Amino acid sequence: MNTALRVSGVAKHFGAHRALDGADVSVPTGHVYGLLGPNGAGKSTLMKIILGLQRPTAGEIEVFGMPHHGRARCDIGALIETPGLWPGLDARTHLRAHAKLRCVPESWIESALDTVGLRGVSGRKVGQFSLGMRWRLGIAIALLAKPQLLLLDEPTNGLDPIGIREMRSTIRGLADMGVTVLVSSHQLAEIAQICDDVGVLVDGRTRYEGDVEGLAADDDLEAGFFRIVAESGSTGVR
Questions:
Q1: How far from each other are the two terminal CA atoms of the chain, in whole angstroms?
Q2: What is the pLDDT of residue 140?
Q3: Closest Cα to residue 168, out of 35, 38, 32?
Q4: For residue 16, what are the CA distances in angstroms to 8, 12, 20, 21, 161?
Q5: Among 129, 149, 27, which Cα is nearest to 86's?
Q6: Which of 68, 118, 172, 180 is the most exposed, having the fewest neighbouring CB atoms within 10 Å of its CB?
Q7: Which protein family is named in the record (predicted)?
Q8: Is residue 222 scored above 90 in pLDDT?
């Protein structure tokens, strides 16, 4: 199976603090991969390094078999933290602005809107959107350049049950279209429903990587997760 993203021994030190201390991640092409871990485990730091927003202290990254030199790439899209949107502008205007910034044809806007299910409300001001709709617009912006790899940081955080269900459907739909998705989350139940593979970071190191079933202990995903945290000697708080 081809690998979309390979992270090997990546470390990131901020003075004496080691945000990452030898992370290893292997994401198969076309899969949804869940990056799990307690708060402070290094999930967001790793995503920023993959995007070229931070430089690693050590380690190597390959994207679709090629060394990643820390520069932004058009084949990687991302939505990190809350999407930055203007409440007074409609969805289509947001996408037009980002299309110009990225030098992509405006004709690609319709495809992005269709992918996230917002074409019917594309003329509505974002200030009238639910949180789930704002997240989906953020994903549409991330998809404008038609990336092959998409990074999503806590995409269901703060959503109500309807928004979570819609986000789940959107993410699985992207995988069905051939987009590889790396999802950072601390919501184990959601990860179990949308991901093909998972990796668990604890104190900046990869403590587990494999399928969801392998993480569970006696068919209990939460018990398996806490077992790994305990075996690492971490309290889960940094």
A1: 36
A2: 93
A3: 32
A4: 21, 10, 12, 12, 41
A5: 129
A6: 172
A7: Belongs to the ABC transporter superfamily.
A8: no
